[in-house]
Amino acid sequence: MTAVAGPATPYDVAVVGGGPAGLAAATTALAVGLRVVLVERATALGGQYWRQPAPSSGAGRLRFGELHDLHHGLDTFTRLCNRVLEGERAGRLRLLLRTQVWTAVRTEGLVVLSTAGTGAGASAGEVRARRVVIATGAHDVALPFPGWELPGVMTIGGLQALLKGSGVVAGQRVVLGGSGPFLLPVAVGLARRGATVLGVHEAASPQRWARHLPAVGRNPGRLAEGVAYAAELARYRIRVHPRSMIVQAEGADEVEAVTVQRLDARGHLVPHATRRISADTVGIGWGFAPVIDLAVTLGCAVAAGPDGRLVVTTDARQQTSVPEVLVAGETSGVGGAALALAEGELAGYAARDGLAGPLTPTPAAGPGSLRRRSTVGRRRDAQRAFASALHAVHPVPAAWSQALTGPTLLCRCEEVPVSAVRAVIARGVDGARPVRQLTRVGMGWCQGRTCEAACALLVAEAAGPSAAPPPPFERLVAQPVSLGLLAALDDRHDDDPPADEPFLDDVGRV
Known about the structure:
Elements: E1 11-16, H1 20-31, E2 36-39, H2 74-89, E3 93-96, E4 99-107, E5 110-117, E6 124-134, E7 138-140, E8 153-155, H3 156-166, E9 173-178, H4 183-192, E10 196-202, H5 213-217, H6 220-235, E11 240-242, E12 244-250, E13 257-263, E14 269-278, E15 281-285, E16 288-290, H7 293-297, E17 302-304, E18 310-312, E19 325-327, H8 337-352, H9 370-393, H10 399-402, E20 409-411, E21 416-417, H11 418-426, H12 432-439, H13 452-463, H14 483-487
Parallel strand pairs: 1-2, 1-6, 2-3, 6-19, 8-15, 9-10, 9-15, 10-11
Antiparallel strand pairs: 4-5, 5-6, 7-16, 12-13, 13-14, 17-18, 20-21
Helix pairs in contact: 1-2, 1-8, 3-4, 4-6, 8-9, 11-13
């Protein structure tokens, strides 16, 4: 076996992200003979989809598998982790947990990733590789409404992360709202652990799926999953309200009630069709926005995806417009774990393509064979068709901005109200970037990750349906990093992880 690259030798491929797409890419690259470094900012592998309990001690410590009912496909996760562990033992894979990539550059045919540890005693450093697979996932989209800044209003991803990561139920009387199938597992997960879910307010109508039956037929597993959730919702007496959305949250110091309102067939609010619900927790989710910061920094081309949000464009192999860069998973379009696994595997194969040196022959159906790649490609295409249908069925309705008031905060970091943004747009500004420069939207701690979607939607709404999508906010620093770490940056490569770095015990020694 070839030893892991030292400071003077770049890795064959660096994989950024330890979720389904990153794990599939890393283990596939291993299988076809590449030397791999896998970088994950969390304390354990799995990403958001297979999020595992954080390391802790004491009688209440959660262990791997204890929250298995909140996951799908743990067997697949275990299998992938086993391969990572085998690669690490063989000296062909380096796993850097608690390590984030905060920027990247290309130089002399290599990609240089600037890294920073996220734990105590963390250090900064660099990782160099001939190819990089960016599998950084996506984050929740939370569109504003009056009262959304109150404690108790959370994204549904945040509610799920508390459950999976810590076994914590955020509230006892919960109302969920937004659009998309992710609302369902969150509702079921909360109910299983004792919360009373007072309703799921889905802005779309399930009747829209009737236009996309071929995509459903190509993915029978998705249909079975939906049926299972329907049965669980009935078991816990959780009612789903189609064509309904949360328009206001109220409370003195925290959420005490929400107001929901019906939508008509065009997605507009129905006047006076409101209902007030007493609740202590509100979960909102309008889908997910791909995390494309690193790809944009490296110069990869982007385009609007089926839901209008920017994604990194790829060919059929997951190759971007930049030869050294591949992407997989939500970075190239939100579509779920099954799609991410297929794209990660294809990216692992493509990382091998174009790299110099002899390759290990594989049998006709083995890793990297044409037959295997064709099979995975068909699986990816079927999942992508379903994802496109899902985006068509669950658009952001026109009513989302009708619920806004002038004082509603659009940018919570910089406390910029909706009225300020609308005033700038009314002056003829036609892009998210000048709106940002004139109002300071997106210039706070989150750098627009919370408010960028709403700002872009307001600009697009004023520009009309034929307008081109706004360019992404460019962030040279993809992740927050302390000045202390930057000051301590030296010329080392392939830095060691922090001294207290846990390894696979945190995902179960399998």
